[in-house]
Design brief:
Elements lengths: L8 H5 L6 H9 L3 H12 L5 H8 L3 H13 L3 E7 L5 E7 L2 H25 L6
Organism: Natrinema halophilum
InterPro entries: Tscrpt_reg_TrmB_N, WH-like_DNA-bd_sf, WH_DNA-bd_sf
Protein name: TrmB family transcriptional regulator
Length: about 130
């Protein structure tokens, strides 16, 4: 089982108007190239690792690691397609952008609630 993402929400507070890609990377605790992989998958659903590597001009192993992270975060799925000559290939598809946005909102709402609790529970005493 993979470990939970390490959110980088503090980084978002440093920018007054962060781009969507930065928000996604920080909230899901993923690297910018993994966010880019997600966005490419949105445009090219059902892509193989080789197809993504060619499109993104990246090494297969880098793309494979990005896809693994996206799958761990629930942002992409992998389907097996049987080949006519025998064997199979894995195809990857990103979850729909509205679903990803809902996950982003949920993560931020959870974080905000936690911060509000910290503020409300503070009794004025330092540690």
């Amino acid at each position: 089982m993979s470990e939970p993402p390490q959110h980088r929400l503090g980084e978002l507070m440093e920018e007054s108007n962060p781009p969507f890609e930065e928000v996604m990377s920080c909230v899901f605790g993923i690297e910018n190239h993994e966010t880019w992989t997600y966005l490419v998958l949105c445009d090219q659903p059902g892509s193989t690792i080789d197809e993504l590597a060619a499109t993104m001009e990246r090494d297969r192993s880098t793309v494979n690691r990005s896809l693994s992270t996206l799958r761990d975060r629930g942002l992409a799925r992998r389907d097996r397609r049987l080949l006519d000559g025998g064997g199979y290939v894995y195809q990857y598809t990103a979850i729909a952008l509205p679903e990803a946005k809902a996950l982003l909102h949920d993560a931020l709402d959870t974080w905000t609630a936690t911060v509000h609790d910290v503020i409300d529970e503070f009794d004025g005493q330092t540690r």
